[in-house]
Write a structure and sequence with these properties.
By secondary structure, the chain is of the alpha/beta class. The protein has helices at residues 39-48, 78-93, 153-172, 187-192, 207-210, 212-224, 247-259, 286-296, 309-317, 328-332, 336-343, 364-368; strands at 9-11, 14-16, 20-22, 54-61, 100-106, 134-135, 149-150, 177-182, 230-236, 264-268, 299-302, 323-326. The relative contact order is 0.14. The model has no long low-confidence stretch (mean pLDDT 96).
Length: 371
Amino acid sequence: MTSKLFESLAIGPVTVPNRIAVAPMCQYSAHDGCADPDWHGQHLMNLAMTGAGLVVIEATAVERLGRITHGCLGLWDDATEASVARMLAAGRRFAHPGTRFGIQLGHAGRKASAQRTWEGGRALSADADPWTTVSASAVPFDAHWHTPIALDDTGIARVKSAFVDASRRAVRLGLDVIELHAAHGYLLHQFTSPLSNRRTDRYGGSLDNRLRLPLEIMQAVRAAVPAHVAVGARITGTDWHPDGITIEEAVVFARELKALGADYVCVTSGGIVPGISIPVAEGYQVPLAERIRRETGITTRAVGLIVDPVHADLVISSGRADQVALARAFIDNPRWVWHAAQKLDAPISYPPPYDRIRPGSWPGAALARPK
C-alpha cells in the first residue's frame, strides 16, 4: 500500500505530488536583499532535487527595514526580484518532477538589525551599520537590543503595502505558493502576542485587535493575488509563556485566516521573547497542528523535529496534519525523500542523470540503508 506521506495534496488551487515540504531556511547570504548568484543558485537547485512536493524559499523581507540581518533575502524592488528570478531559474531547471515552489514573506520588526547567526545573532552595534527597527510597541526584544519605533497608522499602511507589493512580485516570478510569516517573534507575531503588543488602539489589547494587522494583510494579499496561487500563513501555536499566545487563540487565528481565503497554515511556536524553556523533542509541535486542523478544518502543515520517515508518515496517516515540513534535516540529508521512499516502499522518480542509484538498479542502496 502506498505511504500516505507520498500521496498528493491539494493546497487550495495548487496540487503537490506528496505531503513533504522543504521549510524556508534563512541563508543570511544575500547582498542588500539580492540573492547571491552562486550560493543561492546551488542552494535552491539542491532543494529542488530533493523530491519534496513543495519547496519554500527562505524568509524574504518585504522591505529593507524588515530584514533580520544584512544578509537577508528581500523582494521589495526590481533588483531583488531579478535576483530571485535567477535563483528560481537554477532551481526549476533541475527540479524534481511535480515539485512546486513557494516563498515566505515576512518582516523582522524588532528582531531586525541583527548579526548573522554565525556572528552571534545579537543586535548590531553602532559600528556595524544598524538600522531603525519597528514593532507593535516600543519594547525591545531583549536587553541590549534596539528599542523599536511603535508603528503609527502611516507605518502600518506602509507595511501592508509592502506585503502586497512583494506578493505581486512573487506572482510575476511564477511562484505557486505565498506564505505570510506571522510567527517566530517577527513583526506580525509581535502584533498578535500580548508579550510584545502593549498598544491601546485598535491594533492592541483584545485578541480581535491583536489579530487585526495580520488579518488585514492576509485579506489584502489574497485580493491582490490571482486564484491559481495558494496563499497561507505560518502561525504560532503557543508562545510557551503563561502570558503569551495560547493554542486556543491560535485556533481562532487559523479560523479567521481561513475565512479570509487562506489555503493553509503552517503551525510552529516560540520565538517571541528569549529565555523560554521549550520542551523540544521529536514532533513536539505536531499536537499544535493537530488541534488547529481538527477544530478549523484548514489544511495544516506540521513542523518541528520531524526527521524519521516512519514518524512523518504516521503524522499524516493518523490525521494529525495534512503535510509535514523539514528544514535542517534537508541540509543534513538532501536525499531524505529518496531514502524515505525506499524505507516506506513508495514509488518515486529520480532526475535522469541520477536514476542509476534507485533501489533495484544499484545494489549499494540496500547496503547503505538496510531496512
